Amino acid sequence: MIGGIISEANSRPFQVALLLRVGVNGEQGFCGGALVHAEWVLTAAHCCFHNDQQVDNVQAVLGAHSLYDRYENGRRIVNVAEVIPHPDFVPDTFANDIALLKLANTIQLTGVTFVSPTLREKLMTVMTDPLCNTSYFGQLPANTVCGYSGLAGTCKGDNGGPLTIVYNATEETILIGVASFVGAGGCSDDVPSVFTRVQRYLTWISDVTGIVID
């Protein structure tokens, strides 16, 4: 993330860091994700591919505040058993940029309902689709939501990470977006960050995972 503030430890227990590669010796990539069930992580579909090959060696880092602190209290690394990109994902346009990862082990879930190594966060304004589309010259994919802050934006490693809101009536944290992309310049606070709109994919998520979504 460009800008933003360092998150308080344990303030975002649903946040997941993903280590992804093709095979054992492939180049390692980094993405974010959100724990949405005891054995399921939601992330971006483009995180699941490297050089047109689907990654098959993925680990989810849970409970981490600093990505580089291997001995951090509460940190846990869980292997991913199955990688499921959305079947209609289009790499060239980032359409349907959403994926599900099934964890090899069931873990305890806390929190979410439905270029710093330290976890950071930033308040963003959710933009209207027409206004955001203007920033992307009319090329914004369908089923997206944009967040903007003049002082911060998503960057490398943030892709797949969650955009959340707090529902004041219940104080629940609700996942509304999965970080997809920013403008061609990348890592910019001058253009909106684009997120896949989770609400549009609830039926697919339920069909794949068996999770009953109210």
Write the layout of secondary structure elements.
Blueprint: E1 5-6, E2 15-21, E3 29-37, E4 40-43, E5 49-50, E6 53-54, E7 57-62, E8 76-85, E9 99-103, E10 120-121, E11 125-127, H1 129-135, E12 144-148, E13 162-167, E14 172-181, E15 193-197, H2 202-209
Q: How many strand units?
A: 15
Per CATH, the architecture of the largest domain is: Beta Barrel
Question: What is the beta-strand fraction?
Answer: 35-45%
Q: Provide the succession of SSEs.
A: EEEEEEEEEEEHEEEEH
| First-to-last CA distance | 32 Å
Strands in their spatial order, largest beta sheet: 2-3-4-9-8-7
Q: Give the total of domains.
A: 2
Percentage of residues in helical conformation: under 10%
Radius of gyration: 16 Å
- The stretches of 5 or more residues where confidence is low (pLDDT under 50) are 1-9, 110-120
CATH classification class of the largest domain: Mainly Beta
CATH topology-level name of the largest domain = Thrombin, subunit H
Please name the fourth-level CATH homologous superfamily of the largest domain: Trypsin-like serine proteases
What is the molecular shape?
globular
Domain Peptidase S1: 1-210
Keywords: Disulfide bond
GO molecular function: serine-type endopeptidase activity
Protein name: Trypsin
